[in-house]
Every structure is written in structure tokens, then in C-alpha cells.
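Possible regression after last week's pipeline update?

I re-ran a chain I had predicted before the update to compare outputs. Posting the input and the new output here so someone can diff against the archived version. Not blocking, just want to make sure nothing changed silently.
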Amino acid sequence: MEIIDRGSGPALVLIPGLQGRWEYMRPAVEALSSCFRVLTFSLDGAGLDGYADQAAAAMTAKGIDRATICGVSFGGLVAVRFAARYPARCAALVLASTPQPALRLRRRHEIYIRAPWIFGPIFLAESPFRLRPEIVVAIPDARARRRFTVQALRTLMSARVSLPQMAARARLIANVDLTADCESIAAPTLVVTGEAGLDHVVPVAGSSEYTRLIRNARSVVLERTGHLGSVTRPDAFCELVRTFTSSVLGDRDRDQQPDQVA
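New output (post-update):
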């Protein structure tokens, strides 16, 4: 497992989304590493338990006992399982645009995952059209938006995704119920969503279920974003996470990790 280790300060483990590749989270990694020591990696394993164990192994490999666990989209499901499975190692929990704890896939997505090699390219091809409205709002400057698009295309070409693995993760979303996991979590939790009218991937109402199920969880809206706020407005996302962790973590959790610059 390649472990990306960036920045200095309190430890934060960033778990990527359905693509499984950390490279798609690069803007968030760069922003968060200005305030945190960020560990991230590409998902490699099977099932939520396997992915949670991978996060724990990354922490152990880097000598980190406790960290803020931050999951984005599908990665939020992994983060929930980690917090339930490794409560002593989860100092705080951040769930960004995470699918609801018990989700039924839309009909067309059920069709896609039955034959990912055939329908996966269609899903990828339609994504820019589905995501464009929120990108326009999040990045109103046309030049900045073109730079973002070019970088996204470069990432797509250099960090190839596995369509079968994406389909397997999608099936996992449809077949897991994290209600019991949520009810067992004691870590301070922040639920981050975009604006309801801009997230055309994961309904905000579903993500907000975590605020109800995890005791003492709080929620915040990352304005002018939808599903991609952690990468379209990474500095604003970082500030939300920094403010939250500063308010809930004691000196022990803020200061226990040695500085690391990579």
C-alpha cells in the first residue's frame, strides 16, 4: 500500500470516494495539509471492514495512534465503519457528502453495476454533464474552471480507475446498513454537505441522516458546492474541518503527533 503523508500538525486520515484513487482528492489533500498531517491512500481491499482495516494499517505504519478520520462520498461509509470498529483510534469523524446509511441505488445505477465494462463508460461519460451545474457555481471564474477541468482530465488519464471495483463498491453501498455503526459512535462528528439543489450525486437529505443517528453530531453546509466541495472549494472545506477539530479535540489530540513534512 502506498501511503501519502503530507503536511504537519494533528493527524487526519482522508479516505477517497467511489473511484478509490487518492489522486482524485489531490486538491483536498493539498489544502488540508496546510493545517494537518494528512495520510491518504488508494482503496485496496474488499468490504467496509477491509477498507477500515486498511486505514488502521496506514496509521500503524506511520506511528499514529489516533487521528481525525475524514471520509468523502463512499469514503464516508468507510469512515463510519472505522469509527465503529476502532473507536479508540478515531479522535474525530468528518463525513463529507456521504451516501445515507441504508441506500437503494437508482434503477439505472443498478443496471450499470451488472455489467460495468459495458455500462461503466456510459456512467463516466455522463458525469461531466451531471456535475457541471455545481462546478459552475463553485468555480465561477471561467479560467479557473478550465484549469480545474484540465487537471481533472489529467487525473483521469494518469490515475485510471477500475470499473469492476467501482461496481463492487456501488453494490456495497446498496447492501449495507450502517445504522448500528452510527449508533455506536462516540467520536465528535461533523457532517458536511453541499447545497441541496447542487448535489446531483448523493441527496443531501440522505447525508443528513448521520446527524440524527450519531449522537452529538453536528452538521454544516459547504456553500456554493454540491457533491464535489472538497475538491472544488478545498480551502473552504479545510477551514470547516480545521474549525471543527479545533473546537472538539483536546490538547492531547492536537499535539500528540510529531511534525512530518513530505
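Follow-up from reviewer: compared with the archived run. The first helix runs from residue 26 to 32. Marking as no regression found.
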